[in-house]
Amino acid sequence: MEQVLSMACLKKPAAEITDTLREEYESIATPDLESEVSDSDGPECHSGPDLTEGQKTVLTDFEFSSEESSDEESEDRLSRWSKGDSYWSKYPPQSETITSSQSCPGPAPGSSVETPKDAWEHFMSENIIGAILQCTNLGGLRAALAKGKVWQKMTKEELKAFIGLSLLIGVERSCDVPIRELFMDPLQNPLYRATMSVGRYQDLHRFLQFDNKKTRVAREASDHMAAFRNVWDLFLINCRKRFIPRDSVTVGEQLVPFQGRCKFLQHVPSCPTKSGIKIFWTCDTEVPYAIDGVIYTGRQPGEETEENLAENTVLRLSNGLQQKGLNITMDSYFTSVPLAEKLFEKSLTMVGALRHKNPHVPPIMKPSKLRALHTSEFGFCGKVFMVFLRNVSLGSVCGSSLKNLTPVVK
């Protein structure tokens, strides 16, 4: 049975909680003047109220001096130390305040859309079309000269028509149909042969390029994705500037189906796709919009295997978030205590799930049959806190729900 913990980092100060506890201690430790005078009147009068078990625990946890410490309290303290050498207290410490930047979420100014064509041009902008056009004409010209033929220069309108036909093939689920059949068969969609000839479409498909092939070898020496890097970066710039995220975003991964030749192709037999290109995305939590993305290319040439891949990926994606105070929600693959602390330094917060085998999870939050159902345990360490909840089935907690139960968290 797999146990899941939720880990987060405080966003608002817990001063109100600590001040209340200190006031209780002062009322216990410092008797008023009347109690001092009445102390000599008779044995029935005493100097102050008796300490309850809960108050004793409060005094111990805030490191106030006490005459005796029970074995249960000592055992509880030991169970709150994790293998990562961190102590998870019962009570929240005072923490810094992160104020969210007041930006109007939604489409960025100047990103209004009236037609599907307007939406397309926001992301496939003129600089992307120009880069593809230049590289394709250059590659087609070299191939034609090598065979002693003449290359018919492709225009911008012709490139857009080619992209439109390629999209139409995908919409009609005709990827497995031969190209000549799509253009020549009278039973197929007449838009194909009305747009361009089958020979011209095959030529553009054969020589379509996204970079200068003559300089690709030098760039591939340090980047597996050199053939598509420039266009991908331009596309991500458009994604970032066309939308303002709300106060919370989500980080996840996607396996895009692909069967062609690729140095960083991922094979995942457990996924329905089986193989494809893995992309890590940052998306808005309310609107299905991709704000930023990182393609996983594996170990780059000349580099060692990257350690802490999940943590470094989230940090790269967070560089594109310009607003302060944003909360990032993620699953157990990305979540770690060091990541929460690093994001807090960038004025970002985090909510995620931790598996019980994580070295930063203390023993008191490990799965146990002795723990009653529907019970929870909180732990606070600096600006980070985690909670364990034993459910009926898995003993898990939904990390995103903590945002509504406690001060918004990291």
Please state the overall shape, judged from the principal axes of the Cα atoms: elongated
Helix content: 25-40%
Strand content: 15-25%
* SSE-based structural type: alpha+beta
Which segments are poorly predicted (pLDDT under 50) over 5 or more consecutive residues? 12-18, 27-49, 51-68, 393-410
Key structural traits:
15 helices, alpha+beta, disordered C terminus, 9-stranded mixed sheet, two-stranded antiparallel ribbon, PGBD, 410 residues
Provide the fold topology:
Elements: E1 4-9, H1 15-29, H2 33-37, H3 53-61, H4 71-78, E2 106-107, H5 116-123, H6 126-146, H7 156-171, H8 179-184, H9 191-195, H10 198-207, H11 216-220, H12 229-241, E3 243-244, E4 248-257, E5 266-268, E6 274-284, E7 290-295, H13 309-318, E8 327-329, H14 337-345, E9 349-355, E10 376-381, E11 384-389, H15 402-405
Parallel strand pairs: 4-8, 8-9
Antiparallel strand pairs: 1-9, 1-11, 2-3, 4-6, 5-6, 6-7, 10-11
Helix pairs in contact: 13-14
Structure description:
There is one protein chain. Strands 1, 4, 5, 6, 7, 8, 9, 10 and 11 form a nine-stranded mixed beta sheet that branches. Strands 2-3 form a two-stranded antiparallel ribbon. Residues 12-18, 27-49, 51-68 and 393-410 have low confidence and may be disordered. It is α+β, with helices and mostly antiparallel strands. It has helices at 15-29, 33-37, 53-61, 71-78, 116-123, 126-146, 156-171, 179-184, 191-195, 198-207, 216-220, 229-241, 309-318, 337-345, 402-405; strands at residues 4-9, 106-107, 243-244, 248-257, 266-268, 274-284, 290-295, 327-329, 349-355, 376-381, 384-389. It has 15 helices and eleven strands. Helix content is 35%, strand content 15%. The radius of gyration is 31 Å and the shape is elongated. The chain has a domain at 117-216.
